[in-house]
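Late entry, PTJ complex.
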Amino acid sequence: MEIPNTHPRKLSLESRQKIVDGAMDGLLADSAMIAHGRGEAFDYLLGERTTQSASRAIIEASARLASAVNPVISVNGNTVLLAGEDAIRVAAVLGCSIEVNLYYRTPERVSGLISLLEEQRIAVSSRGSPSGFVGDWTEAVGKVSFLGLDPNFRILGLEGPRSKCTEAGIGLADTILVPLEDGDRCEALVGLGKEVLVIDLNPLSRSSMMASVTIVDEVSRAFKGILSELLSGTQPPSEWDNMSVLKEGLREISESVGRIPGD
Ligand code: PTJ
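Prediction complete; structure with ligand written out below:
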């Protein structure tokens, strides 16, 4: 359905449609719509904007990604549907891999999501380089590896299929960017000594609280913010008090009262 540009909830309705289409194509977990609805509710409370505290977290996460030796971007079903192209742009700038790592893992979903990423790669390449990028964009985008199909490694401290990952990706990574992560896996990755950078609209989720840096923002907005930070030059990582930034996020939610979403 074509949504007119003037519709105040256009972006939100388009995101919903991506999730509906992804579910019909068998790419998403059965509970993906519940997760999306929870995210939408928090985004509504935040005023559907990147708040000041989220901007600070984007700057810090970008600094840590830029200074990482072996960064990787971990994606699940919702992330590929909502922000796959944005994730590929960030991976191309960083020169890192994207690993499909699912909570509700089936080989069919992993291969379906990797096929979708391959389609998105073509679109990202053909739309040209983002402003500030120096180098051969087509080559940088072409070099991004999509991992996850043949897991050969386990995340220690986690039971079952969700512990499966690849050694070349999450296994050897020192820094992992994980949107919409689950709390247990986040805790296990932090326990392994990795830097875990989470994107989650819910500042009270276990992953938000467990992460090294939490970006309380919508996944596609957060990736766009990271891309722009990486391309404008990052500072070295700083001392970071994640809990105080999460509290600031909660304060910003209460300050959104009176703001009309879409404004
Ligand atoms: O694809 P899979 O199998 O890995 O499954 C993915 C889901 C998302 C279904 C699974 O990880 C899950 O059930 O997640 P949760 O526990 O519901 O957590 C999702 C978190 O992401 C919640 O805290 C939501 O607020 C948040 N969230 C949802 N949509 C967005 C979001 N954060 C940022 N941007 C969004 N668009």
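Strands lie at 71-75, 97-100, 146-147, 153-154, 164-165, 175-179, 195-199, 213-215. Will revisit in the morning.
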